Amino acid sequence: MDLSTVIAGVSFPNGLMNASGALCVTQTELEALGASEAGAIVTKSMTPEPRQGNPEPRYVAFEGGSINSMGLPNLGYPAYAKLIPALKRFQKPVIASLAGLQPDDFLAGARALNEAGPDLVEVNLSCPNIPGKPQIGYDFEASERLLEKVGEILTIPFGVKLPPYFDPIHHQKIAEVLQRVEIAFVTMINSVGNGLVVDPEREQVVIKPKGGFGGLGGRIIKPVALANVRALWNIWGDRIPIIGTGGVEHGVDVFEHFLCGASAVQVGTMLVEEGCGVFARLARELAELLERKGYASVLACRGKLREIP
Ligand code: RRO
């Protein structure tokens, strides 16, 4: 079964990859993704300096998903800029996730990444876990200013990692911004920010940072993720590729993301829970499902979701 895809002119052996943040901080983790059946290697979102991140516990899986408040633990731009050229030996695209604590950080990161030469850059406008730093993607003007400036520097095609939106007017607004800055692709959604998971036995929150508030991922966010993918597909069709993220546990979840309009999917919670073997399993399950339904390739089902007349 042909599970290959193309994002912004870059060919992927298959459309399954890690979500930034999931098992992709260290050299060892990135190389494990390289050696796995993942169709790409996505780095952890990076900042100018190395960061330890927030205090632990900061990631907890629960029935239905996960909550995290990692706080951007990463090795810093220079370390990733050094690692990226060597990751090319795995013969699959390398996507660098670019973050920052202030706008100028993103520009410094863009310069460092031009030198390092990943295949694509994913600009993260949606980290929900830095105390005092709102998610940039919820401020449309700030997002546009930042992406314009990043675009003046980056010589590599770049996309954006968006937070979930919950109103059609917000989908319309962010789509207009992204068209104006000529974005090459969109990854959506980041975790559903500032959720709260409660342990009723201990009468306590389950993660330490921010009083227990953190980003939700996994099965429970799939309908939100699918809605966001579909909303942008309804606006753009196949003009700007979408990488769907949220709630991918089985091949059928990948299929649903593609039906809604995704050209690839990322796996976060399930990768953390299962390890890199998840990609081979998802590829097998997806291929079986497509075969049974008579599709010749995964891209053949992209956007084919039917509405009820
Ligand atoms: O590191 C994190 O806390 C984190 C980031 Br940068 C992000 O984009 N999304 C998320 O759920 N956690």
Account of the 3D structure:
By secondary structure, this protein is of the alpha/beta class. It has one domain (5-53, 72-191, 219-301): Aldolase class I (TIM Barrel, Alpha-Beta Barrel), CATH 3.20.20. 35% of the residues lie in helices and 19% in strands. It contains 9 helices and 16 strands. The chain has an 8-stranded parallel sheet with strand order 3-16-15-10-9-8-7-4. A 4-stranded antiparallel sheet has the order 5-6-14-11. Strands 1-2 form a two-stranded antiparallel sheet. Strand 9 (158-162), helix 5 and strand 10 (185-188) form a beta-alpha-beta unit. Helix 7 (251-260) crosses helix 9 (278-293). The longest helix is centred in the C-terminal third of the chain and has 16 residues, at 278-293. It is globular, with a radius of gyration of 18 Å.
Keywords:
309 residues, alpha/beta, TIM Barrel, 4-stranded antiparallel sheet, binds ligand RRO
Strand content: 15-25%
Averaged pLDDT? 98
How can the largest sheet be summarized?
A: 8 strands, parallel
CATH topology assignment: TIM Barrel
Alpha carbon gap, first and last residue: 32 Å
User: For the largest beta sheet, what order do the strands appear in spatially?
Assistant: 3-16-15-10-9-8-7-4
Order of helices and strands: EEEHEEEHEHEHEHEEEEEHEHEHH
Oligomer: single chain
Specify the number of helices. 9
Shape: globular
